Amino acid sequence: MNRYSKESRVIRTSRVFPNDVNNHNTLFGGKLMSDIDMVASISAARHSRSGCVTASTDSVDFLSPIGVTDSVCFEAYVSWTGKSSMEVFVKVVAEDLMSGSRRMAATAFLTFVALDKRGKASIVPQIIPETEEEKKLFQTGEERAKARKVRREKSKDLANYLTTDKPW
């Protein structure tokens, strides 16, 4: 059974409060990344209707700083699927609450794996894109999946040279 991208769509808007900002008075990057992972995980679960785990945060591109007069809107949806994996795209739009101007603040791609009740990878429905944005992301998804595979192999190779000895 295939599913439309819109069936996995998650939209969340929040304010930026003083305890969310860094020493530059802009939203702390770690806070934004945590929120991105949260909405992406809901999107993956909606698509697969199963338990999911984050396999990778493929990219987070910070495009514009987010300040204390901004709201932050996260929009996430499944943009491409493999056999048991789902690529979730998240766009982050900042809105200046004083002027109403909106700007793209960040984009991110994350990969999730669907799990069955035994914790094993399970097959996910394929995605059906409808909008121009969804179609563009779907068309370029296989290329990103290949790049992820290469990057993962390089990470595994590097891990063979890393030590777990206590440096403290």
Structure description:
With 168 residues, this protein is α+β, with helices and mostly antiparallel strands. The chain has one domain (3-159): Hotdog Thioesterase (Thiol Ester Dehydrase, Chain A). The protein has a five-stranded antiparallel beta sheet with strand order 2-4-5-6-3. The chain has helices at 29-48, 132-139, 141-159; strands spanning 3-4, 10-15, 51-62, 70-81, 85-96, 102-115, 127-128. A hairpin with a 3-residue loop joins strand 4 and strand 5.
Topology:
Blueprint: E1 3-4, E2 10-15, H1 29-48, E3 51-62, E4 70-81, E5 85-96, E6 102-115, E7 127-128, H2 132-139, H3 141-159
Parallel strand pairs: 1-7
Antiparallel strand pairs: 2-4, 3-6, 4-5, 5-6
Helical segment tally?
Answer: 3
The count of strands amounts to 7
What order do the helices and strands follow? EEHEEEEEHH
CA-CA gap between termini: 52 Å
Q: Return the structural class.
A: alpha+beta
CATH superfamily: Hotdog Thioesterase
CATH fold-level label: Thiol Ester Dehydrase, Chain A
Largest sheet: 5 strands, antiparallel
Strand order of the largest sheet: 2-4-5-6-3
The proportion of residues forming helix, as a percent range, comes to 25-40%
Mean pLDDT: 96
CATH class reads Alpha Beta
Catalogue the unreliable spans.
none
Shape, per Cα inertia axes? globular
Architecture, CATH level 2? Roll
Which band does the percent of strand residues land in? 35-45%
| Estimated radius of gyration | 18 Å
Q: What is the total domain count?
A: 1
Write a compact overview of the structure shown.
The chain has helices spanning 29-48, 132-139, 141-159, and strands at 3-4, 10-15, 51-62, 70-81, 85-96, 102-115, 127-128. By secondary structure, it is of the alpha+beta class.
